[in-house]
Structure formats: structure tokens, C-alpha cells
Specification:
It contains 20 helices and twelve strands. It is α/β, with parallel strands linked by helices. Bound molecules: NADPH dihydro-nicotinamide-adenine-dinucleotide phosphate. Its EC number is 1.1.1.44.
Length: about 475
């Protein structure tokens, strides 16, 4: 029988995705630009299911039943366009091309538009979970036409991660919606990891705890509100002993974080949408700072820090404070992330169901966490929630955490340990809840130097003051 689906691009992700499909009983045609990867897949895993190896794209397409479904899993950017360009002339109307790589959502919009004009479906599917997720069940965030999703649904939901009977895969929305949501997932992942790193740093430097002791702290946290994959693996990394030095693994790793760019994309997109995503932005900046060796070397040991570091910090109380600060800051990061998704959904008319998005992330992906159920419940209570933070659960959670959170940010500042994630989140929270912001002064300044006008609290219209003249107010519209 002809293959039901094809995968082209058999590096780490594509190969595991193809195996996942085959293990779930689907007939999969497989192809890779350089034949060696195809041969290796067949040599090692042919017994896992029904694979049809193809030497080139025409052979891949010829192996498929109609309408054809081809998953592209190659390097994002120009390589994806190259594969699409080669594939499209081989396809017939109604065929479905899925890009499961980490495409920028704007590229997905462009590609979807181009293929739609040719009568083809283009599905931009965000896939999260790394190598293991691709094989055992990733979180899948597909964007594209409802018809295309309907045709793919039986296969995608079968290979996706599950929570009980529910698959972590559902139609996110048209064109770039899936890749946008995947991008936000990665942005939240950046924020989450930065917050975890700050918690670790503070506990270590303020309390002098050893990595193995810190691993225990994180393990304990993983049984409460913070339960998540990232907290779980934090304990694992902190527990690891380096073979060659015999010391903690975390101490021999160079402290320069790398980034492939999805965090930056998230922040750039949020800036364009006018949504503050300070948690993610601080995470991206912190990685940039960590990698800025030249400037760090010039400043380290040169710029003065605080002289007196408090030595009387209560161990258990501080650990608990940091736990609260981490949770509250994390809630802020998620609230900001969902604000960005809502703004993009409005801007591009994607009509994204935010509660559904939180369900997609409950398993399979890197930010999987039990607390995502709380987000789903919040949007079930009110689908138009202006911010997750005003939902009762979130409001109460942050309310309970806030004294601790403030103490931690204050301690970080006093001791001189950088906590950009914790403090930016707290500032955002205080900004959000403020009755009045000093933006009134900013508007005054803008009017003085640039006649940019201001609005008044007591009357409609725009106004300008003759600053250089009689200081009389004029209404400008
Ligand atoms: P890579 O991103 O390393 O890409 C390698 C694959 O792309 C190979 O199959 C390679 O073929 C193919 N390729 C590169 N250039 C071209 C080209 N011009 N024409 C045709 N094929 C080309 O592979 P990964 O498996 O790591 O990732 C695949 C996609 O999934 C990427 O978009 C990535 O961002 C995304 N992703 C990755 C995750 C991960 O954890 N790695 C997680 C989630 C998504 P060849 O063998 O011939 O060189």
C-alpha cells in the first residue's frame, strides 16, 4: 500500500518523528538530501514499522497516497524554502505540505500564502520536546487551513504527547498561528530557565549551599506548585558530578549561555505588537550579557559591589522566599506570553483559543508543567481575561507570594546578585496594578520638547501647552 505520510529531513528531529509515525502504525515514506541519513534510518529501525525509503523528492512524492502529506523537517530558513521550491512542482491540488521546523511565523505566513495560490495546503506546525519528544510524543502546534488540519489530525494526535486521553495537539489557527505559539513557547522557556538560574544563584551565593544541596531543594520544589520538567532537570544537572574534576558539573561548565534565536524572535515580535514581555526580554539580555566576555572581563573585579553582605539570613525562610519569588515571576512571564499570543491573534485574525494553547503545553514540550492546568481553568472561567494575573487563582497566588518576592528582590539588590528576571517581573506587576503611573510626566516632557500633545483626565481631546510662551493650554483636536 502507498505511504500515508512522508518526512523529508532525517536529522535528529525528522528521523525521530518518522520513527514515531511508523511505531504508531502509519506507513511513512522517508527522504533526506544526503542519502546516508535515509540509509541509516532504514538500517537501524526498519523493523519498527512500515518505512519506504526514497532517494529523491520525486520518489518520495510518488510513494504517497492522495492527498499527499509531506512533513518537512530541515534547517529553518533558506533550506526550508529550498525544499518547498523543489517539492511544490511535484504536488497536485489539495496536497498538504507541513513545515515542522522552527520557522519564523512571518515566513510561515508567506509560504502559506504562496502555496494557497497554487491550490496547496501549507501547515506550519510547531513541534516541541526535542529529540526525545519527537520520538515518544511531542507537543504539536499546527497552524493552517482547517481542512488540512482535519486530514492530518488522526496522525498528529496519535503521535503527540498525551495527558490521559487528551493529545497535546490541536489546531491553533490559520497560517502562522502554530509557529507563533511555538515561538512563544520558546520565549517562555527562556524566561523560565532564567528565573530558575536566578533562584539557584541567590540560594547558592546568599546561603552558601552546595550544588548537591540545591538539587535537593529543587527536588522538593518539584512536588509543589512549581512541579515541571525544567525544575526536575534542574535537580538532575545540579546533582551531576564532573568526572574529570570530581567537582560539581555546574562548576566546570563555561558560564556563557547560547541561543539559537527563538527567544530573540519572541521579544522582537512582542515589541512590534506593543506587548511588554519583560520576563523573556530579560532572559534574552541575560544570555547576551553572559556571552559578552570582553565587557565582563573588563568589569569583573573592577566595578565595585556592596561591602557588607548580610550573614544572618534564615536558611529555611530564604529558601521559601525564593520559591515564592520564582513562582510569582513565572506567573508574570506566562501572563506576558499569553498577552503576546492574544495580541498576535487579534492582529493576524487567528482567533486563537488561549485555554487550548495552555493544554498543548501540558506534556511533550520543554515547559510542560502541572500549573498549565491553572491557565486552562482561568481561561475557562473567562475567555476574555485581560491578563492572567487578574484571574482569582493567579491573583491569590501572587498575593500570597508577594512579600517573599519583594524580600528576595531586595536581598538580591543588597547582596549584589543579579536577578533581572525576578525584579523585572515584580516591576511589571507593580506597574500593572498601579492606579497612576508616571507616564503623565513623560507626556508632559514630550509635550514640552516636541509639542507631542497630551490628553487630560477630565476632558476629551488632545492638548498642547505653549511652554515657551504664555503657557496657555490649547486643544489640538
Ligand atoms: P537541523 O536543524 O540540524 O537540520 C539538518 C537537516 O536539514 C538535515 O536533514 C539536512 O540534510 C537538512 N538540510 C539542511 N539544508 C538543506 C537544504 N538546503 N536542502 C535540503 N535539506 C537540507 O536538524 P534538526 O533535526 O535538529 O532540526 C530540524 C528542524 O526542527 C529545524 O528547523 C529545527 O529548528 C527544528 N527543531 C529542532 C529541535 C531540536 O531539539 N533539535 C526541537 C524542535 C524543532 P543533510 O543531512 O543532507 O545535511
Amino acid at each position: 500500500a502507498p505511504a500515508q505520510i512522508a518526512v523529508t529531513g532525517l536529522a535528529t528531529m525528522g528521523r525521530n518523528l518518522a520513527r514515531n509515525l511508523a511505531r504508531n502504525g502509519f506507513r511513512v515514506a522517508v527522504h533526506n538530501r544526503s542519502q546516508a541519513k535515509t540509509d541509516a534510518l532504514i538500517a537501524e529501525f526498519a523493523d519498527e514499522g512500515d518505512f519506504t525509503p526514497a532517494a529523491d523528492l520525486p520518489a518520495l512524492v510518488a510513494a504517497l497516497e492522495s492527498p499527499r502529506k509531506v512533513i518537512i523537517m530541515v534547517k529553518a530558513g533558506a533550506p526550508t524554502d529550498a525544499v518547498i521550491d523543489e517539492l511544490v512542482p511535484l504536488l497536485d491540488e489539495g496536497d498538504i505540505v507541513v513545515d515542522a521546523g522552527n520557522a519564523h511565523f512571518a515566513d510561515t505566513r508567506r509560504r502559506e500564502n504562496a502555496l494557497r495560490e497554487k491550490g496547496l495546503h501549507f501547515v506550519g506546525a510547531g513541534v516541541s520536546g526535542g529529540e526525545e519528544g519527537a520520538l515518544l510524543g511531542p507537543s504539536i502546534m499546527p497552524g493552517g487551513s482547517p481542512e488540512a488540519y482535519a486530514a492530518l489530525e488522526p496522525m498528529l494526535t496519535k503521535i503527540a504527547a498525551h495527558v490521559g486521553d487528551e493529545a497535546c495537539c490541536s489546531h491553533v489557527g490559520p497560517d502562522g498561528a502554530g509557529h507563533f505559539v511555538k515561538m512563544l513557547h520558546n520565549g517562555i522557556e527562556y524566561a523560565d530557565m532564567q528565573l530558575i538560574a536566578e533562584a539557584y544563584d541567590l540560594l547558592r551565593r546568599v546561603l552558601g549551599l552546595k550544588p548537591a544541596e540545591l538539587a535537593e531543594v529543587f527536588r522538593t520544589w518539584n512536588s509543589g506548585d512549581l512541579e515541571s520538567f525544567l525544575i526536575e532537570i534542574t535537580a538532575e544537572v545540579l546533582d551531576q558530578v564532573d568526572e574529570s574534576s570530581g567537582g560539581p558539573f555546574v562548576d566546570v561548565v563555561l558560564d556563557q549561555a547560547e541561543q539559537k534565536g527563538t527567544g530573540r524572535w519572541t521579544v522582537q515580535s512582542a515589541l512590534d505588537l506593543g506587548i511588554p514581555v519583560s520576563g523573556m526580554a530579560e532572559a534574552v539580555f541575560a544570555r547576551s550579557l553572559s556571552g559578552d566576555v570582553q565587557r565582563r572581563t573588563a568589569a569583573s573585579g573592577v566595578l565595585p559591589g556592596p561591602e557588607d553582605v548580610p550573614s544572618d539570613v534564615d536558611r529555611d525562610k530564604f529558601i521559601d522566599d525564593v520559591r515564592h519569588a520564582l513562582y510569582a515571576s513565572k506567573l508574570v512571564a506566562y501572563a506576558q506570553g499569553f498577552d503576546a499570543i492574544r495580541a498576535a491573534s487579534d492582529e493576524y485574525e487567528w482567533n486563537i483559543d488561549l485555554g487550548e494553547v495552555s493544554k498543548l503545553w501540558r506534556a511533550g514540550c520543554i515547559i510542560r508543567a502541572s500549573f498549565l492546568d491553572r491557565i486552562k481553568e482561568a481561561y475557562d472561567r473567562d475567555a476574555d481575561l485581560p491578563s492572567l494575573l487578574v484571574d482569582d487563582y493567579f491573583k491569590n497566588a501572587v498575593g500570597e507570594a508577594q512579600d517573599s518576592w519583594r524580600r528576595v528582590v531586595a536581598t538580591a539588590a543588597t547582596v549584589g546578585v543579579p536577578a533581572p528576571g525576578f525584579s523585572a517581573a515584580l516591576s511589571y506587576y507593580d506597574g500593572l496594578r498601579a492606579e497612576r503611573l508616571p507616564a503623565s510626566l513623560i507626556q508632559g516632557l514630550r509635550d514640552l520638547f516636541g509639542a507631542h500633545t497630551y490628553r487630560r483626565i477630565d476632558r476629551d481631546g488632545s492638548f498642547h501647552l505653549e511652554w515657551a510662551g504664555d503657557r496657555k493650554e490649547h486643544q489640538t483636536d
